[in-house]
Amino acid sequence: MPYILAIESSCDETSAAILTDGKVKSNIISSQLQHSEYGGVIPELASRLHQQQIIRVVNQALKQAEVDKRQLDAVAFTRGPGLLGALLVGTCFAKAYAFGLGIPLIEVNHMQAHVLANFLNPQPPAFPFICLTVSGGHTQLVLVRDYLDMELLGQTIDDAAGEAFDKAAKIMGLPYPGGPHIDRHARQGRRDFYNFPTPEVGAKQFSFSGLKTSMLYLLRKGLQEDPQYIEKHLDDLCASYQYRIVSILLDKLEQAALEQGVAHLAIAGGVSANSELRSRFQQLCQDRGWTAHIPAFEYCTDNAAMSGIAAHYKYLAGEFTDLSAVPFTRGGL
Question: Which of 1, 145, 279, 287 could covalently link to 149 via disulfide, CB atoms 3.0 to 4.6 Å apart?
Answer without folding.
Answer: 145
